[in-house]
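Notebook entry, structure prediction.
Reason for the run: the old model in the group folder had no record of what sequence produced it. Starting over properly, with the input documented here first.
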Amino acid sequence: MINMISVKKFTALVATIVLIGASLAYVFASQLQPAFHGVGVLKNADSFAYTGDLVEYQIRVYNPSNYDLYNINVTDPMLGLNDMIPFMAATNTTGLTYTFYREVLEDDPNPLINEVYVEAVDSEGAYSSSSTQAITIITERIIDIAKMGPDSAYQGEMIMYTITVNNTGAVDLFGVVVEDEMLGFSWEGDLSEGESNVFNLTYRVPCDAEETLTNTATVWCELNETMIYAEALWTTELLSPCIPPHSMGYWKNHPEEWPVEEVEIGNVTYTKEEALVILKEANAKDATRMLAAQLVASKLNKVSNDCSTFCYCDETVDIAEVISDADIFLGEHPIGSNPQDDDRQAALQLKDILDAYNNSECD
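New structure, fully documented this time:
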């Protein structure tokens, strides 16, 4: 019994020593693990360019190490860059970015290889250096691409683009690739000397697109182990959706939908409540009351949708001009003045146009 107890105690002691030893080994290993030294640099440039083009270069110097860096020298002989960054904190992976533009020269080598060098000393006195390249292929102008689309469009609208590719050189081209990433389009084929190919493509404008829609079409192929490349882009202005106008009766019965709290009629500003009275008191006896009611509705529609024109008697009418004329008339003939003869006819004519607009589908 005594021997059994002694064996158990000995076994427990050995297990405890092993666990303690493993823990100490982990601690020592963590302490002995070397920290990282070094300076980092990244560089990118346009992949393709023609002679005479400006190539954009971006150089990012950063500190991926565990130590602060001092006196970081940045050198790029081709771009004429020779700069010194006094300090960069440890693990600063954002770093500092330089942007340069350089024209492709006729005597530049192809591909055009540009290299940047960095060197620094860290807070532990360790020296480090790094370098990286950016490669730009200089292409020949023996292939051309053009792209056309609508100048403007609405969100959700289906639009058409036309892409035209021309072989402008004196040789046949094989394995020509035409791509438009935004349209999801890709074509590969051959173009004989002087041959053109036209592609008509449709695209639905995304409902969440804003302000402008710009996309790029590219064409490329290989000739005598040289990359030939061209691109074309088209920008379409995105318009706000045109909401059809509402009738005078709609605005009279839906005051909660009014986009403003006051309306100016004939140089007089009316509150929302006063303007509602104008809508409710419109009657055929007084042309100014009928005109004022349609003018209130037209101004509410104009604020709501900004549709500038509509067709009236087969003619395009600028509604802003009609609204201005109605304001001038009611400034000279206030609401309730009940004009007669020619003045009444003028008021009724303006009223009819505004009424037609308020009940129209805007163009």
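Summary: The chain has three domains: 40-138, 143-239, 248-358.
The old model has been moved to the deprecated folder.
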